Amino acid sequence: MSKVVIITTGGTIAMQHDSLTGAAVPAVSGADLVRAIPGLGSVCDLEVREFDNLPSPAITPDHMFRLAVMVRQYLARDDVSGVVITHGTDSLEESAYFLDLSLEGHKPVCFTAAMRSGDELSPDGPRNILAAVRVAAARPARHMGSLVVMNEQIHAAREVTKTHAANVATFQSPWWGPLGVVDGDRVIFRRAQLGRQTFLPHSLCKKVDLIKLVTGSDAAYLDFAVSRGVDGIVVESFGRGNVPPHVIPGIARALEKGVIVVNATRTGGRVLDEYGYEGGMLQQHRMGVIMAGELSAAKARLKLLLILSQYGPDGRPDPAEVARYFEHSM
Ligand code: ASP
Questions:
Q1: Ligand 1 binding residues, C-beta < 6 A
Q2: Are residues 271 and 129 in the same domain?
Q3: Exposed site from 73, 93, 124, 299, fewest CB < 10 Å?
Q4: From the CA of 90, how far away is ligand 1's center (Å)?
Q5: 90 is in an annotated binding site
Q6: Domain CATH number, residue 163
Q7: 186-205 as b/e, with b when 16 or more CB fall inside 10 Å?
Q8: What is the pLDDT of residues 221-279, one digit of tens each?
Q9: Annotated binding residue at 56?
Q10: Is residue 194 part of a domain?
Q11: Model's pTM, two decimal places?
Q12: Where is each L-asparaginase N-terminal domain found (predicted)?
């Protein structure tokens, strides 16, 4: 029988309601989390490892980096066929994507979580863990990179996002849909993960800020980011990548200082240089702004952090190379 390692990081799946405040707080250990799930032991051999017990808004890129190192060690073992990571739903899509960019090889890594804690009516955690273990142990899940298994669906880490604050069907991959489903004990894939990329810096040694643009935005936050010494900035733009015109001088000053600027849209769909007005993506692209394709701004920020960190603490990034990493991926 194959072995799946379950690494627990925290989240609602490991929470219970506190008797004093009535609010959900971290409470359940990794071992307790998997102990009482009916049928789990007959899927495959299991090993449980507690990485941490954090609510996921407290997860940082440094946690993700350390998690990737731990996962790599498990995947290197011949007796391990895959890894399941339990995580809070709030930032799950970020950690899942970070690991997608940080792991090589064919073995599946499946993130799962819960929208309801274990002491609520109809908790979804146990069923999600069972489904995630089935996927991590399944041959068709190989070469699929980092996956998110929730509510019987299997999503690509790159595409998935949390779409609702409370509903158990919160994880969706807008426009693309899930890669597959878990139907009872069967793991069924309908599409593959294409064009994955891997970046393996020695440490996260660079600083990247994300700036959300809204109507009436100006250059103030870009100038502030540059003044605090960032190496990269992701701007979250409108539609095809267009930004308010008063942002443009801030982008120009950032580029002039050697800061890499990446543009990711708030809508979903591809950023593209098809609008030529002041603030349009064509103007930005000609200035040297990199288009993030279909990545959300949060995911583009993690990808830029990994890419820039590959150049080392003193290394200057080659903007054309950074652009190729973004623009030649999906
Ligand atoms: N706030 C929780 C967290 O992300 C939500 C959850 O896990 O569903 O840790």
A1: 11-12, 55-56, 88-90, 113, 115
A2: no
A3: 73
A4: 5
A5: yes
A6: 3.40.50.1170
A7: ebebeeebeebbebebeebb
A8: 999 999 999 999 999 999 999 999 999 999 999 999 999 999 999 999 999 999 999 99
A9: yes
A10: no
A11: 0.97
A12: 3-192
